C-alpha cells in the first residue's frame, strides 16, 4: 500500500437488500424502486456518509465484505453485493464498481444479529 493510504472500514446496521429481477418494478409504465429497497439505500448511504467524507477512491480496489446473518436462511450473496456496490458509489466512496478487482465475501451467522462490515483497500 502507498504512503498515506489507509484501509477503509465501514459498518452498516443491516444487510444489503439483494438486487433481483423484482428490484425495479413497472406500474402504469413507470419504473420505480419498491419502498423496502429505497429505504435500505437511503439508510445505507446515510450510515456510510457518517463514516466516510473523503473523495471517491480511484484506481484498482480490493474489497472484503463480512455479512453477519441473523439465521441460516438461504441468501444470494452476489445480488447483495451488487446492491452494496451501488450504495458505495452513491455515497461517494468509490467512483465506479468496475474499480473492484478483488472481492472476498464472508457469511457469518450470529443469532438475531445482522450487519455488514466492509473493508476497502487500494491494490498496487
Summarize the entry for a quick read.
The chain is α+β, with helices and mostly antiparallel strands and 124 residues long. It has helices at 35-51, 77-90; strands at residues 8-12, 25-27, 30-32, 61-69, 100-109, 115-122.
CATH-wise, what's the superfamily? Holliday junction resolvase RusA
Radius of gyration: 15 Å
Low-confidence stretches: none
Structure classification: alpha+beta
Main pleated sheet:
4 strands, mixed
Which secondary structure elements does this structure contain, and how are they paired or packed?
Blueprint: E1 8-12, E2 25-27, E3 30-32, H1 35-51, E4 61-69, H2 77-90, E5 100-109, E6 115-122
Parallel strand pairs: 4-5
Antiparallel strand pairs: 1-6, 2-3, 4-6
Helix pairs in contact: 1-2
Report on this model:
By secondary structure, the protein is an alpha+beta fold. It has a single domain (8-122), classed as 60s Ribosomal Protein L30, Chain: A (2-Layer Sandwich). It has helices spanning 35-51, 77-90; strands spanning 8-12, 25-27, 30-32, 61-69, 100-109, 115-122. The chain has a four-stranded mixed β-sheet with strand order 1-6-4-5.
Task: Spell out the key features of this protein.
two-stranded antiparallel sheet, 6 strands, about 120 residues, single chain, 2 helices, alpha+beta
